[in-house]
Amino acid sequence: MPDLPDTPSANPGQPGTLPAPPGLRHFASLFQQLAQAPPLTVAVAGDADGAVMEALAQAQRFFPLRAWLAGHRQDLARRAEACGLDLRTTTVVDVSDPDLALDAAIQAVRSGQAQALLKGMIPTAALMRAVLNPETGLRGPGLLSHLAVFDIPGFDRLIFVTDGGINIAPALPEKLAILRNAVPVARRLLGRDPRVAVLAAVEVVNPAMPATLDAAALAKMAQRGQIEGATVEGPLALDGAISWHAAQHKGTAGSVAGDADILLAPDIEVGNTLGKAITHFAGGVMAGIVLGARAPIVLTSRSDSALSKLASLAVAMACGGLLGPERAPGWPGPSEGAAGRRGKERVTFE
């Protein structure tokens, strides 16, 4: 994976003065928008080690991100300064206990002090337990799901894959919720209604293959106006979803065939394997976030490339302004109906 350029900001102290790195060419328009947007704050859940500090500091070179940290004040300040994190725009809360630091970060998001949550030095399971706490966490009225956004070399657009990280074997109601989580984010990044391919192994409905039944049902829902803000078709096999030549050769008709933006996976195995194949076989850079909570959640790991961490924070910033509990002034919201009208769904399942 290419690393970030070692070029200082053209205007020190003024984030957002650099264009998107070459490895993130399809994120260029988003970076331009973020550079002009009001600052958004990212709270770090758990202790912020050097890797987390470096990710935040590098993001500040491209867009106006502010950090919110909780832990030992002197240690955090020393690490932040060593990594180049702008302390003038960083909030540091002095907390000695790691559990209290996690709780403080969650409360910062709940109160609107921060618009996104970034995983720090804490086990993912512990973070998600705190997020899902019904009384003090960040759980929203809908389903939590994972969205991966890929910038793939040689590809002409961003590709969105969901859900390869949270929902193991979603049934039709969960697939509808996953889709409604993903659509407003894709609309925000693409600047238009996304084209959704509901994936299966084949393009025909087969009663012996439940994924094709769910895909056909979601396509019919969209056709009848029950899913808004996107064009949805399925079942579609992967080649017919992303390759125009494959769709033409197979005789797959429709406006999504060959031009899909969002790939809705039938289960976590397909979504997870597809995402890793894009990263390791095709050299794609992934931005990964968890949706459905009160704010987007970034789950970066030490193995993530610098570009992947930067892209994840950029998408989280876009989602924080779009979906956050306290939308920052100047951030546009989705058009009517684009967010799936969470909590007011036209389709209900008993």
Plain-language structure description:
- There is one protein chain.
- 37% of the residues lie in helices and 16% in strands.
- The protein has helices at residues 28-36, 50-60, 73-83, 98-110, 124-132, 172-190, 210-223, 238-242, 244-250, 268-281, 306-323; strands at residues 40-45, 65-71, 91-94, 116-119, 145-151, 159-162, 195-199, 231-236, 262-264, 285-291, 297-298.
- Mean pLDDT is 84; it is low at 1-13 and 323-350.
- It is built from eleven helices and eleven strands.
- The protein has a six-stranded mixed beta sheet, with helices on both faces.
- By secondary structure, it is α/β, with parallel strands linked by helices.
CATH superfamily of the largest domain: Isopropylmalate Dehydrogenase
Major β-sheet strand ordering = 8-7-9-6-5-10
Helix fraction, binned, reads 25-40%
Q: What is the domain total for the residues? A: 2
Radius of gyration: 20 Å
Major beta-sheet overview: 6 strands, mixed
Mean pLDDT: 84
Q: Kindly estimate the percentage of residues that lie in beta strands according to DSSP.
A: 15-25%
| SSE run | HEHEHEHEHEEHEHEHHEHEEH
Instruction: Provide the CATH top-level class of the largest domain.
Output: Alpha Beta
Specify the number of helices. Answer: 11
